[in-house]
Amino acid sequence: MSFIDKKFAETFGQSPDIIAAAPGRVNLIGEHIDYSDGFVLPFAISDRTYAAVRVRDDRKVRIASVQRRNKIVEHNLDAIKPGLKGEWERYPLGVIWAMGPTSGIDIMIDGHVPLGAGLSSSAALECSVATALNHLFSFGYSLEELARLTQKAENEYVGVPCGIMDQSVSLMAHAGSALLLDCRDLSTKNIAFDVASSGLELLIIDTQAHHSLTDGGYAERRASCESAVAKLAVKSLRELDLAQLEQSQNLLTNTEFIRARHAVTEMARVMDAVQVLEAKNFVALGQLLNQSHASLRDDYTVSCPELNVAVEASLTAGALGARMVGGGFGGSAIALIHAAHTQATIAVIEKAFAENKFKAPRFFTSLPSQGAQVIQRG
Ligand code: ADP
Ligand code: MG
Asked: Could you tell me the distance, in angstroms and rounded to a whole number, from the CA of residue 160 to the centre of ligand 2?
C-alpha cells in the first residue's frame, strides 16, 4: 500500500478509486510571456503531487492534504462556486467547479513539489486532481482542454491571473524533454533537453524569499502588456519584433515600452534556445539564460535582491548561465552548471546569501520528467 493510499484510508476510512500524479515545473526560458501569446520552454520536474480520489454516493465533497495535517474540509458539491471563502482547498475546489463531477467525492492530496517556491505546486495540485477526475468520471477531456480548465480554476476560482504555461507543462511534458509550448493554441513540440550526457546539471535555487508585491506586481505587468497591445493595435505582443516595437516607441509610455521589450526579446530568446538545444550548444544556452535574467531584472523589473544574488553567485562559481524563474519577487532561480561543480556552486551561493543576511536558500536538481499520469486504479 502506497503512502497516499494509507493516508486516504486513515482519513476517509476507505480505499481510493484512483490515484493520479502531476509534476511541478521549471521554465527553462520564456518567462512572463505566456499571457502575451508567446512560446515558452518549460520542463516538468520529478517532484509531483498525488491526488487520491473516491466517488461518493451523495453530494458531499471532502478534501484533505498531507501538507495541511490531513484536516478534512467539507462542502456540498452544488454550493461550490467562485467567491466561496477558503484556503488551499480552493485549488482543488476550483478544479471541481470547472469540471463538474456528477457526484460527491473524497480527495486526499500529498504534494512533493515545494509549496510557493516558484515550481508551481499550484498547477501540480490542480492537474493531479483534474487528471483523476477526468478518468474517474470518464469526461474524456484532451490535455489541452484540461489545461484550459485548470487555468480557469486558478484564474476564476482561486483568483490568481496565471497564464496557461504551468498547467500545460504539468499535463503534457515528456521525460527527457523540455516542452516548446505555443501559448496561443497550446500546440507543443518536445525538445530534447539532455544536460546530463554533457556533464551538466540544472541547479534549482529556492531563495525562500516571498516578497508581498507578488500578486499586485504580476497584475501590473500584465496590464502594461495589455495596454501596449491596445495602443499598438496588435492582437498580442507575439506579432511584433524588436525593430517594430522600437519604431512605435513614441506611442507608449516608458513603462509600457520596457515591459513590451521584455516580452518581444524573450520570445526571440525562446526560439534561439530551441536552436541551441537542438545543436547541444549549452554555452549558448547559458548566455540566453543570462540575457533572460537581465531582461526580467531591468525591463520587466520582477527580480529581487535574493534572486539577483543567486544568479550572480552561480556565475561567480562558474555556471554557464543563470536566471530567475517564475513570477518573480522571490521564488527560485536556475543555474546551468557543470555536474562536478554542484557542491562547490551551492557553497558559493550559501556564502553569498549569508553575507547578505538572507534566509538560507534550498537547492534541488531535476531531470526533465513525465507529465500527469494515472498511477493506480482501485
Ligand atoms: P507555487 O505554485 O509556485 O508553488 P503558489 O502560491 O501558486 O506557489 O501555490 C502554492 C499554494 O498552493 C499553497 O500556498 C497552497 O495553498 C496550495 N498548495 C499547493 N500544493 C499543496 C498541497 N500539497 N497541499 C495543500 N495546499 C497546496
Ligand atoms: Mg503557482
From this structure: 8
